[in-house]
Write a structure and sequence with these properties.
alpha/beta; Rossmann fold; 2 domains; 7-stranded mixed sheet; 4 helices
Length: 206
C-alpha cells in the first residue's frame, strides 16, 4: 500500500490519495492534523508527502514523523518535498545566488552591476515579483483554509529530524518529473527509509 498524503488535486495512480478536501475526489477524506492517523501500524510500503509538512505547526513535525514511522513497514520509504528556506531567503533578499522562479536564471554578483539589476536577465520578471513569490512560498498562498505554511526547512535540518525519528539511507532528489531542478522551484525533495527508532544512521552530505 502506498499513501499520498495531503495530495490536493495531485491524484496519483497506484497510491491511496488522502486529503481533507472531499470535493477533490480523493480516495480517503482524512483530517491529517488529528493524530494518530486512521492507518494501522506497519501498513504502508511508502508514504509520499509533497508540499505537506510545511502546512503544520513546526512543533508538530516530530509527531508527524513518528506517525509516519509507525505506519510504514520495516524499510518502508518516505518521500518528502518542502520549500527550501535556503533558496527562498536568497530570493527574498534578492542577493547573489537567488534563482528566478519563472525561468530558473541564477543571479550572480556581476548582475548587481547592471543598470537594470532589478530585473531578471532572461525574462521580464522584476525583483518585486520575485520577492512577492518568495513570501508566498514561505508562508503559503493563504487563499483557502489549509493553504498556510507554519514551518520552514532546509535539507540539513529535515535530514536531522528524519534521522532522529528512525529514518536512514537518505537520498536527495535533484530534479522533478519535468526535468527541472527542485532548486529552480524553490523546493527540495528527500527520500529515506524506515530504520530503527533508536538509530537513524549517519547524516549524508548533499
Amino acid at each position: 500500500m502506498k499513501l499520498n498524503l495531503g495530495c490536493g488535486a495531485d491524484l496519483r495512480p497506484g497510491y491511496v490519495n488522502v486529503d481533507f478536501r472531499e470535493h477533490l475526489g480523493v480516495d480517503n477524506v482524512v483530517d491529517l492534523s488529528i493524530l494518530p492517523w486512521p492507518f494501522a501500524s506497519d501498513f504502508a510500503e511508502e508514504i509520499m508527502m509533497l508540499d505537506f509538512l510545511e502546512h503544520f505547526p513546526y512543533r508538530d513535525t516530530k509527531k508527524i514523523l513518528l506517525e509516519c514511522w509507525r505506519v510504514l513497514v520495516p524499510d518502508g520509504k518516505i518521500v518528502i518535498q518542502v520549500p527550501d528556506f535556503n533558496v527562498i531567503s536568497k530570493a527574498l533578499n534578492f542577493e547573489a545566488g537567488c534563482i528566478c522562479n519563472r525561468c530558473g536564471y541564477k543571479f550572480t554578483r556581476e548582475d548587481n552591476l547592471r543598470a537594470d539589476f532589478w530585473r531578471c536577465r532572461t525574462c521580464p520578471q522584476d525583483m518585486r515579483d520575485i520577492m512577492d513569490a518568495a513570501v508566498a512560498r514561505l508562508f503559503g498562498g493563504q487563499d483557502y483554509e489549509g493553504n498556510f505554511h507554519y514551518a520552514a526547512f532546509t535539507p540539513t535540518r529535515l535530514q536531522i529530524l528524519l534521522r532522529d525519528h528512525g529514518f536512514h539511507e537518505f537520498e536527495h532528489v535533484e530534479r522533478n518529473e519535468n526535468g527541472e531542478t527542485f532548486e529552480q522551484n524553490w523546493n527540495f525533495k528527500l527520500i529515506a527509509k524506515k530504520g530503527s527508532l533508536w538509530d537513524g544512521g549517519q547524516l549524508q552530505e548533499f
